[in-house]
Amino acid sequence: MAAPRSPLSRLLTVLLAGVLAGLVLAVAALPGNLLLGLTARSALGSYAALPASLKTPATPQRSYLYANDGKTLITTFYDVNRTDVPLSEVAPVMRQAIVAAEDRRFYDHGGADLRGLARAVVANVKGGGTEQGGSTLTMQYVRNVLKTDPTRTAEERAAATDPTVGRKIQEIRYASALDKSLGKDEILDRYLNIAYFGSGAYGIAAASQRYFGKPPAKLTLAESALLAGLVQSPDAYSPISGDKDEALVRRSYVLDSMVATNAITAAQAAQAKAEPLALHPTAQPNGCTAVSQGHDDWGYFCDYLRQWWLTQPAFGATVAEREQALRSGGYTVVTSLDPKIQATAQQQATKVYSYDNKRALPIAAVQPGTGRVLAMAVNRHYSLADNPAGQANYPNTVNPLISGGASVDGYQAGSTFKLFTMLAALESGRTLSTGFDAPAKLPTRYAAEGPGSCDGHWCPANANPDWMDGYRMMWDGFGRSVNTYFVWLAEQVGQDKVVQMAQRLGITFRADSDATFAKNNAANWGSFTLGVAATTPLDLANAYATVAAEGTYCTPVPVVSVTGADGTKVPVGQPSCKRVLDADVARAATDAARCPVGQQSAFGQCNGGTATGVNDILDGRPVAGKTGSSEENSTETFVGFTPQVAVAGIAANPDDPADSVGSAVQTKVIDAVARVIATAVKGQPEKAFAAPSHELAGDPHRPVERPTVPNRRQDPTTDDDPRSALQRWLDRRG
């Protein structure tokens, strides 16, 4: 690739002229074969002595992210916009055009065309016209590899274009060695994949897409000639960002050169010259803020994948190396994102709240048994664009509202945390038929002051006493979401066991106050079962997916496969799963979780639920789940699952927890999550939940001695935090 010459370049020409003076005088007299023989005898180098990058070029390439179908492009990552393609996927006229434009004697010389170089030296010394470079395609390839090799230092890359005689002679030596060791087509293949064509496009594949929106195999004669003409001065001649008239002049030059090399006829050249410049510029997306048009909601999944990528040692020893690998490694990443599920989730999230609403409904969908994340949606645009005055994070934000992290601790999920209490109780040997006379209010041993206290102790109440109070077992306690039943049950099991259960199922305490309480005082976290700890839809969906998978926890993962630029599969992204619950315990919890959604347990003990409309939306298909309302309805949550998918949605104001979303939105959240589940299971075989053993079910018909309420004042010095969940949320944010 030639470029306008500097004074140093002219000095190089003069110096090189002196070095080659004898050769210049002999050029006219020496036969071609004898000249080439002289080249070989001049010890111009051997293949073994070549830098490793010239043998196996480590050129930076764009990485592609696809949805789980392997076809739907999400976005690309790159520092340099290029992708290698084999020569067989480049139109023959393109191959002929680049040879005619840059190196007509490509198939005749030995890598360094001393005859052409001598001719250029003579012309440049005489002056009076356009300077000639004399560089062959092979020499240009050497220069391009050495100046872009990511394994070399910045100084070494800069030296590849130094205007010195020594550098030029080394370039000749390397080119000669390559020519003796590689076939001409291999050299041409490598050159076409590294040459710069302007407008940010490196390599023929990127150039073909950038200028004409098509793969290089479909380039026409006129298009090929235009692209071939760009490499001499890509920025100046680019018809997108440079001089269109100059680009057409160069196109004509290339077409005439193709006639001179007998690649085409004069008539074909004339016809191609007459064609108008028909560009179809296509800009490749770069990064998560440049996802496919109309799908900026995919950005949240993309960002989650990028964060996952940066934790994987397979892509480098440090975060910086892994970031560079994503942007220059040429990976093909088939993600776990399901476009249909994602579309439904986004539609439902924006149906509940518009993009311009300060409140949000983040939704996550996870596949039980693999941990693969199928969808991540929220009524926000993943964008760095400015928001209207007074609107901090809507409609545009790149904060991880669905997965958590950075400044996002999560949201209270209310009674969905009762699942962890039930699991801890079942694991301790209690049965689903464990009974308790649940009062409207339950005095506890935890010291507290204020409206929610009874004689100086925390006193949780049922939201709907007429429907919730009375003798309850796990089935109807869970189905009707009876607070006093589950607070009592958590006390029987031990609050620390409940907290540990949540952590085993993947609940992460991102808020410092939650993490500290869980570490130092979990045994006194009385309100934990009511969902006062902050969590995210992704953590919650995956926790319930663990129950759906009969006790097998899988680390959330956003990919199906990752393939390197050389076609080798990278050993990452496989499900990482382990058993964290006895299968029978998980089945028992699932049996009780049939009650909230309007279905019946295997033992016929469901007698009411808080989300009975789910059964109708799923048309009777086996499903389970749980609603959750935090204190003063600051958030509303629903998690639902089948054996094939688990979905969670939490309505909240991410910027202001004091802005209660209200109870009226609960039915909308339930409906939204249920419809995402319906899309996820559509077309899949219906799977039933396995019934738990009779040992874990117990005997609901046998009279049970009902436990009495223990002395709630046995520990008046407890250091449990008596503040409301909302107040604690506000306090930890100052």
TrEMBL record:
One Pfam family recorded for the sequence: Transgly
InterPro entries in UniProt: Beta-lactam/transpept-like, Glyco_trans_51, Glycosyltr_51/Transpeptidase, Lysozyme-like_dom_sf, PBP_transglycosylase, PCN-bd_Tpept
Catalysed conversion reaction: Preferential cleavage: (Ac)2-L-Lys-D-Ala-|-D-Ala. Also transpeptidation of peptidyl-alanyl moieties that are N-acyl substituents of D-alanine; [GlcNAc-(1->4)-Mur2Ac(oyl-L-Ala-gamma-D-Glu-L-Lys-D-Ala-D-Ala)](n)-di-trans,octa-cis-undecaprenyl diphosphate + beta-D-GlcNAc-(1->4)-Mur2Ac(oyl-L-Ala-gamma-D-Glu-L-Lys-D-Ala-D-Ala)-di-trans,octa-cis-undecaprenyl diphosphate = [GlcNAc-(1->4)-Mur2Ac(oyl-L-Ala-gamma-D-Glu-L-Lys-D-Ala-D-Ala)](n+1)-di-trans,octa-cis-undecaprenyl diphosphate + di-trans,octa-cis-undecaprenyl diphosphate + H(+)
Keyword Glycosyltransferase recorded: yes
Annotated segments matching region Disordered: 685-734
Penicillin-binding protein transpeptidase domain span: 364-670
Compositionally skewed regions (Basic and acidic residues) per UniProt: 696-705, 712-734
One of the record's GO molecular function terms: carboxypeptidase activity
Domain Glycosyl transferase family per the UniProt entry, residue ranges: 73-258
Keywords of this entry: Carboxypeptidase, Glycosyltransferase, Hydrolase, Multifunctional enzyme, Protease, Transferase
Domain of life: Bacteria
Protein name: Membrane peptidoglycan carboxypeptidase
Source species of the chain: Micromonospora ureilytica
